[in-house]
Amino acid sequence: xxxxxxxxxxxxxSSQRRGATAxxxxxxxxxxxxLVLGAIEFSRANMLVHTASIAATEAARKSIIPGATxxxxxxxxxxxxxxxxxSDATLTVTPAEILPSTEQVTVQLDVPVNxxxxxxxxxxFLGRSVRKSVTLQREGKQTAANSETVTPDGMRGSMQGxxxxxxxxxxxxxGNNNAGGNGKAKSGKSGSxxxxxxxxxxxxxxxxxxxxx
Length: 213
Description:
alpha+beta, 3 helices, rod-shaped
């Protein structure tokens, strides 16, 4: 009887473990790739922000030297951007023609976050732009010393369409401005209503006092 019994072949443990490993890899690989690609994109965005800040600052420092021209200022800024391969950047010098009587020079730099300036396939910051503006007083000038400005580092705009045009949204911040304007209008109306109510109460109090007299 025992001799006629058949035994089921045992499945090796390695085969069972191989299937579990494939399932675990399928579950964890997308998360791992997302974290790696996100770290790469944020690192590149941070690089663009800091390089734009350095480029705008160096160009502005070039502008304060007597005899500097707008072309030399733009060349200085673009040479800094070229160190990390930035393209499609726009550097604006104000005034366009620097004269001996020019008191201040403003350098504004815009770097689009597009496919050419990003690593791999950027998605989080794609379509935005890095903007930096620096205003410095030229050497030997004293009348505008208090109006030197440097804007904070950062990005502006939001993803527009599919984001592959690399353009910042020109309407970014319009909503905030409208909200601020509406808030001011509402506060103005509230102040007017409060003032009118106060005047009416004062008039009523005066009338009551006269009637009592």
